[in-house]
Amino acid sequence: MSDVFSRRRFLGLSAMGLSTVALSACGSWGGKSSGSGSLRAAWYGGDAVHTALEKVLAHYQSTHSGQKVGGEHAAFADYWSKLSTETAARNSPDVMRMSMTYFTDYAGRGALLDMTKYIGKTIDISKMEEGVAGSGVVDGKRYGVGQSSIANAVFVNRELIESVGAKVPTADWTWDSLASWAKAVGQSSNGKVAGTSDQSGHLELFEPYARQHGKSLFTTDGKALAAGQDLVEQWWAYWQDLRAGKGTPAASVTAAATGFETDPIVTGKAAIDFGWVQQIQFLQGLMKQELEIMTIPNLPNGKPGLYVDSQDMWSIAATSTNPDAAAELINYLVNDDFAIKTIGVVLGVPPSKHAVDLLSLEPKSPAGKAVAYVQGLGDKAATPPPPWPKGYSQLSTLFTKISQDIGFGRSTPSKGAASFYSQSKQILGA
Q: Which of 18, 136, 231, 243 gives a 20 to 30 Å CA spacing to 81?
């Protein structure tokens, strides 16, 4: 998968192997809780995430007498591989970070505890933004508590744009104006700099595109696509036209971009990029030029496609022997002042005004820009959709694969859309 929407790179994921933090008596991933007062907590992420959460868990233990927490973490792909194995063995960590990509799958198979009884008592969500507070619910049951607010965004390298004699797009841009602008940038730089990274393979961005057309991505029951085959074909044809006109890098460049370090906006091969808003921190850390944030393009008179919600949550294993203590830990992670300040924005924009105010962010800092962007969306953001349905991960992988086939000339937008739609029925209806 190629750019910042890749779930493997979500929130600064680095290409590392599995590692375990010996915060207490936890020697390796897969250890069992040692009894009352002992918990295992697991998460995925890059170094910034690990450092913050290790510090937070150490502080939790120092301020909660008798509580021991073994922290375990891994890169995104390794995390889900290990968690799948442990879930099958009924040995999941007590507290675990859940990505919306897999959330409904785990909730649906009975792997997560219904936390409803803890909400408003042990776990306080009263200060959270509406979109975050409402996340984590499947079929009326609470299986997760959101950690942060996130939204789709566009990252802009103004300096690079102006260096090729172009102007930064205006905030009222459309998908058509993006295409014209991106191709002009590519042509004026003789193909050295494309206007935008290639987003054809990212289902996470196709969703707001569909919403702008007045279509939900999935049916209410999550058993089928609600966005029609014609819209999928239109999406892939749009990006194929951009590739042909030098508006995006070649398919080989996109396929080779497997991490933030090789992202086209970092390597200077694209002037703008798309991603989750908090990822500006990780991109900016690899660049000298200052990045700005814009909303994604819309249609002329299009409906709001953006939404703000929590794509990552804290959940409790259904097999946990210490669910009460696990709930207390989750409440600490999302509400304690020390935890809020230490975690900052590495997991996304803090989910409440109280949390944001605690951080006292410099407005021009990457984190400050991310917060300001989310808070300023207003009526550009619509009501969040329900949690992605069971099979979403498989569907997202298929979407990326077909887009790559189109990019390399092994398929066409028409054939690709037909194949995607046909296979989606099997995946979602299974």
A: 136
In which element (H, E) is residue 113 found?
none
Q: Give the integer Cα–Cα distance in Å for 64 and 62.
A: 6
Quick one: CA dihedral 355, 60, 50, 115, positive or negative? negative
Torsion from C-alpha of 130, 131, 133, 138, nearest 10 degrees:
130
Percent of the chain with pLDDT over 90: 83
Whether 11 has a pLDDT exceeding 90, the answer reads no
Task: Name the pTM for this structure.
Answer: 0.89
Cα–Cα distance for residue pair 272/157, rounded to 1 Å: 6
How many whole angstroms separate alpha carbon 348 and alpha carbon 152? 12
Dihedral sign (CA 106, 276, 124, 382): negative
Mean pLDDT of the chain: 90
Residue count of the chain, please give it: 430
Q: Is 27 a residue whose pLDDT tops 70?
A: no
| Residues linked to residue 68 through DSSP beta bridges, in sequence order | 38
Residues 6+ apart with CB under 8 A from 290: 158, 159, 284
pLDDT digits (tens, 9 = 90+) for 152-162: 999 999 999 99
Element (H, E) at 138: strand 137-138
Under DSSP, the state recorded for 54 is H
Among 297, 270, 276, residue whose Cα is nearest residue 171: 297
Q: Is 349 exposed, middle or buried (0-12, 13-18, 19+ CB in 10 A)?
A: buried
CA dihedral 107, 110, 112, 116 (to 10 degrees): 80
Q: What is the pLDDT of residues 290-312, one digit of tens each?
A: 999 999 999 999 999 999 999 99
User: Strands across the sheet with 95-99, in order?
Assistant: 19-21, 68-74, 38-44, 95-99, 312-316, 145-146
What are the structural domains, with CATH classification, of the chain? 7-148+311-359 (3.40.190.10), 152-307+386-429 (3.40.190.10)
For residue range 197-252, what is the model confidence (pLDDT) as tens digits? Answer: 999 999 999 999 999 999 999 999 999 999 999 999 999 999 999 999 999 999 99
Is residue 3 scored above 70 in pLDDT? no
Query: Does residue 1 have a pLDDT over 80?
Result: no
